Fold this sequence. Notes:
The chain is of the alpha/beta class. 52% of the residues lie in helices and 8% in strands.
Amino acid sequence: MVERQREVERPLALDEDELVACVACGLCLPHCPTYRVTGLEVASPRGRIAAMRAVELDGAPMDEAFRDAMEACVQCLGCEAACPSGVAFGHLMEGTRQALHRAPMPPKSRLGAATGRARRSGEWVAYVVVLPRHGVLLALTWVAWLAQRLRLVPRRFGLPRLTRASLRTPLDADADPDAFLFTGCVMDAWQRDVHRAALRVLRATGARVGLPGPGGACCGALHLHAGRIKEARRLARRVIRSMPADGDVVVDSAGCGAAMKDYGRLLDTDEARAFSARVFDFSEWVVAQPALELHTTDQVVVIQDPCHLRHVQHADRAVHTVLAMAYECRDTDDDGLCCGAGGAYSLWQPALARRIRDRKVAAIRAAAPGKNAPVVASANPGCAMHLGGGGLDVRHPAELLADRLSNDTMPSDTMKGPRDRA
Ligand code: SF4
Ligand code: SF4
């Protein structure tokens, strides 16, 4: 009863211990992309935590400035990874976004009342109508395909080139699978060829690969980002039901994989915890297999570490290990700073997202200087689209590996298995 009263009194319902853990040392500041591009305290992790405390503990209003500061956060968790005090910034921001989602738009919103309502309606259509209903998303993708053919979609939007052949051809599943490939919502609609490449690589290890059953299209990661926790929970339950038995669940989207590895905490059930333990990022799974053979090349690939792979899943090194089996790999020297994609962040915060991306593009180009833009490997579809919109040639590690699978048409140069390099 007392606990419930506290929740009612406290607008954000955050864990107080987590909220007061920040000692304001500022060591996270260089790892925060929004602080790096603005130089503003309010756009830093320390400033955001101070604003959360003011609202939660000191009665400050949840006003327009507060909403702006929170919504400008990419939720990359670079700050959490860098914090020596172990501040759980992700939990704090998740709770705050949940409270903002429940709260009405401030009456003096810079968007204005009408625009605020239009944005709420747009979000409702995206999160409630389109993403959870894969048929609707695929139908809209055909519209996007037509718009691309009519040259109505500027390249800076980063939409991958959609093809009729890919959209018309479903992925094929094996009977009695050893593992599942999670196909997702947006990725299945817009980047199905990445799944085809992933299936080729997974099968080259000798695995039989299944696909999610009905209802298992959307993992809820974008909903979580937006503070729509109830909807995220409903989608998580559907995803768990769609891949029964005990085969590994391989995920070739870093953002989806991070969300699915967290289902145990999100749903707080034994079933969800058992499911999360079955989830692996694509490269993380491949690197543990003994049977993959690849042809090597001296082609340079610059690796972009998606934040959800590096700071949340801590599986970023697996990408380096699998790609180094076939390519000359380069890292950027920016300590994994975010690219600015962040779920739907680049849609809602386009100016900031572009400024953050500019820094990332410069770091990628510096890693492989030359007159041509380097090939970039990214394990997250959102990052790939965002960086593609910045003029880079971005490919998924699965595509790069599938290109180098040993077969009769390739020169018979050195072949290595993952275990030889891991
Ligand atoms: S979040 Fe961590 S690193 Fe950042 S100011 Fe607070 S204690 Fe320091
Ligand atoms: S999650 Fe990323 S953008 Fe948000 S405060 Fe932390 S470092 Fe900055």
